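Figure 3 (text version): structure tokens given as input.
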């Protein structure tokens, strides 16, 4: 199916013609021309049955005895084909908030995920005839696409490479929108935007994954601390040797580096020990 424009006439002109025919028919019935009056009255009733009102951002899909005749998109009052069935289709932009779904990511970890989909109908004929209920179709396909996209990525990557649901929300939203558009084009629906609104580990593994994230953060912080401690120890020894403050042999250098590394890397503040010499 493909939307097409149907025949239509200005509704105010049609109302005037219908009113004129009705008045003429009544006059003929009163004057004694019963057959002519009845025929004109039937014609006026048929013309009146074709008058319809279209609201802004709305379409009327016309069928005539089971055949699609076209759609009316222009707002206002119009006269279309008499005795036709007219189905209203909203062309307004709408939101669909999916339920919070529990799915497994690519690593098999259960996660909770939800999304919002912004869409509108661009082909009224497809929305009415190609699917049974396009609103329900949007809901089901949105949840199906969300599940499919969620299973292609891990919730989070603890390495630098690769996309993740948490770290690459823009890329995930873009892929979700493209997959939704491919699924919903059959219903004449255009996907304007798709965004994740909820993303979290499932409750049964949330505490374990939190510990893993904390451990990864601690390891990363320790790496930075060790890199800084090595640099500071090198700078200290190099500056002492350059300025000739003290002469250090290899054994004293190792001891000094060891003390500096312990003082810098330790979780607790270093407790200095002052050597006051022997009392005897």
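Below: residues designed for each position.
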């Amino acid at each position: 199916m493909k939307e097409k424009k149907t025949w239509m006439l200005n509704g105010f002109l049609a109302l005037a013609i219908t009113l004129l025919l009705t008045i003429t028919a009544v006059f003929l019935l009163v004057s004694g021309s019963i057959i002519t009056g009845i025929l004109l009255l039937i014609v006026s009733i048929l013309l009146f049955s074709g008058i319809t009102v279209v609201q802004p951002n709305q379409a009327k899909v016309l069928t005539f005895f089971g055949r699609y005749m076209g759609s009316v998109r222009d707002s206002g009052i119009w006269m279309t084909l008499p005795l036709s069935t007219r189905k209203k289709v909203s062309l307004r932009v709408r939101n669909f908030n999916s339920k919070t779904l529990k799915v497994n990511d690519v690593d098999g970890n259960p996660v909770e995920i939800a999304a919002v989909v912004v869409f509108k109908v661009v082909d009224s004929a497809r929305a009415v005839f190609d699917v049974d209920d396009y609103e329900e179709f949007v809901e089901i396909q949105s949840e199906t696409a969300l599940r499919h996209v969620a299973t292609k990525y891990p919730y989070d990557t603890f390495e630098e490479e690769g996309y993740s649901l948490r770290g690459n929300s823009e890329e995930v939203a873009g892929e979700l929108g493209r997959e939704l558009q491919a699924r919903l084009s059959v219903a004449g629906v255009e996907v304007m935007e798709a965004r994740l609104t909820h993303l979290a580990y499932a409750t049964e593994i949330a505490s374990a994954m939190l510990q893993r994230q904390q451990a990864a953060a601690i390891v990363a912080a320790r790496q930075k601390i060790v890199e800084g401690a090595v640099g500071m120890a090198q700078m200290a020894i190099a500056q002492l040797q350059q300025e000739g403050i003290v002469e250090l042999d290899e054994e004293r250098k190792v001891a000094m580096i060891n003390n500096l590394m312990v003082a810098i890397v330790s979780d607790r503040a270093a407790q200095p020990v002052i050597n006051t010499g022997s009392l005897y």
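The domain at 94-201 is CATH 3.30.479.30 (Tetrahydropterin Synthase; Chain A).
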